[in-house]
Amino acid sequence: MGDCGDAEDEFEDALEVIPAHCKMDLNTALSDSKIAIHLFFNNKFDEAQHILEPWVGTSMYHTIGRSIFLFLEALLTFEQTSIQKASASLKSSIRLCNSYRRKTTLTQSIGNIMKRPNYDSYTPDELHAELCFAEALLLKALLTFIEDETLVSFIRAGIKIRSCYNSYKECNVILSSRSWSENEKSYKEHFESGVRLGIGAFNLANDLITAIKNNQITGIHRVFWKQSNEQGLGELELCYQVPHGLRHVLCVLTMLTYHLVVVYVFSQEEGDLEFCDAALRQQLTLYPNGAWFLYFKGRLEFMRGNVDDAIKWYTASVDSQDSWPQFHHICYWELCWANCVALNWKRAEMYAAELAEQSKWSRTTYNYQRACIMLMRGYNCLSRDELNTVNQLMA
Asked: From the record, what ranges are coiled-coil (predicted)?
């Protein structure tokens, strides 16, 4: 835990002396990205974007970093303008990453079918271009699901994901077959964390798709890939063991989401709460006011049955930032259910009403939920106005 504190001090010191770069190389880009990630997960969203903005369009990591921020905003808001901005940014990221990738002639491409390319001849920039290209493709494919909800768009997204997965598989081959020199240790750590995160997340997604009994999704799943849940967790655990890797914190978030949310929603199993507790202790040392980790701490306590503690941590997450009010809605949803479990119906109704008023995800669900919660107080305990409200909500 002491190392985490030292790491935070190191970041804080670095933030005070960030120079205006006149030249951008891969080392500097990776360093800037680590600082931006640290700022982002400490709720300093504007400062994080300020680091990335000057080099958007010229540096791979700065460009895809900005795209990730816009992607998260689109995912949280569901606003069409945010979705379009994220889509345009990801297209730019894909083009830029593609320009950094190793160029091959037609003859070389045909030869690569018969013989594996010599990955030892790839420069660090070309290696990371392959990884960033795969990441940008993945985010663009995921964004397609919310850009247009038609079946054609759904199938198109599945095809994009297949292409993206092939890119990750090639990165995995590079990771295992390339001879990494001692001078490339840092490059390898960042590259490995990204590859293992991508492969692991794909396998967990496959497990989730299998669990969802939806014919459209299952059809795409059968056509495209067959991997195991165990392999996905194994890759993520290997990524977790690379603490200095750039994607380490994203790996932690992925594993927390799986063990604290996905497992309980889509299966009859239990998440690994011991791992979650250890991971959250570490991350909350680095990011004590981080809204994401405060939320997951609340979720951990909720899954343990500590409802009062869960409410405390969810509330702390809400209070920790107001730059992204849409993130509050995730906490409101949890607070609504936690108060239901605690039989605090008026408090639960308040959060359901907040969601119905502010969130664009599913107002029908929120209104129905609010009406049910009001009725749980007892029909005879409701005033005439409250009964009218229930009738309006259920109409």
From this structure: none
